[in-house]
UniProtKB/TrEMBL annotation:
Biased composition (Basic and acidic residues): 15-25
Protein name (Swiss-Prot/TrEMBL): Putative plant transposon protein domain-containing protein
A Pfam family hit: Transposase_32
Region span, Disordered: 1-31
Annotated ranges, domain Putative plant transposon protein: 69-201
Organism the protein comes from: Phaseolus angularis
Length: 203
């Protein structure tokens, strides 16, 4: 009986242990493989958000829309980002090997950081209905480029296309002032990128 009971207790303890989340490799990295991957991330250039707070002074309509949407947190930052911490976040967010990683869940120095849509909307104080946004529908159904041209471009200007006729980008010079402000805001605060002279198809 004693032997049987001991085996049963050992089996139950093993099952409980399997259900527990795996402990991080260290206070900074989820696993030894993540720690090694950090050396690769360290050498990569980091594109930081850039403030565009002066834009509303030159375009009242832009500023009014920013305030109406309650997007103040997108245009301001409480403090400059710590580049080392940001790179640790990206290192731990990468799925490496068979280490169990939950989608949209990062780890930074002992703290779990969620970046799923609900968490981001909560941070931005965005009240979001359950239906898809216009961007999601465009991604799913394909963009109406003629409609985009009518909204974004100066009359008579169009998307740039390659030799096969496929859309490539919109040049900054083909945009009216208000669209240029939104382009600058997007490149600086929403999708930071180094290529800011035009709007590429991806952006």
């Amino acid at each position: 009986m004693a032997s049987s009971s001991g085996k049963r207790l050992k089996t139950m303890a093993t099952k409980r242990k399997e259900k527990e989340p795996e402990q991080p490799h260290s206070s900074r990295f989820l696993s030894r493989k993540h720690e090694k991957h950090f050396k690769v991330v360290q050498d990569r250039r980091l594109l930081m958000e850039r403030k565009v707070g002066m834009i509303p002074n030159f375009a009242p309509q832009f500023g009014e829309k920013l305030l109406a949407n309650d997007w103040g947190k997108l245009a301001t930052y409480p403090a400059p980002a710590n580049i080392a911490v940001v790179k640790e976040f990206y290192t731990n967010a990468k799925k490496i090997g068979d280490y169990p990683v939950e989608n949209y869940l990062g780890y930074v120095r002992g703290h779990a950081i969620r970046y799923d849509p609900d968490s981001i909307n909560n941070f931005l104080d965005t009240v979001w209905a359950s239906e898809q946004c216009q961007f999601a529908l465009c991604m799913e159904e394909g963009a109406d480029f003629e409609d985009v041209e009518r909204v974004l471009c100066i009359p008579g200007r169009h998307f740039q296309r390659n030799r096969s006729g496929s859309v490539v980008n919109i040049r900054r010079t083909d945009l009216p002032p208000l669209a240029k402000y939104w382009m600058t805001f997007s490149h600086a605060n929403i999708q930071p990128c180094s290529h800011v002279s035009d709007i590429t198809l991806r952006h």
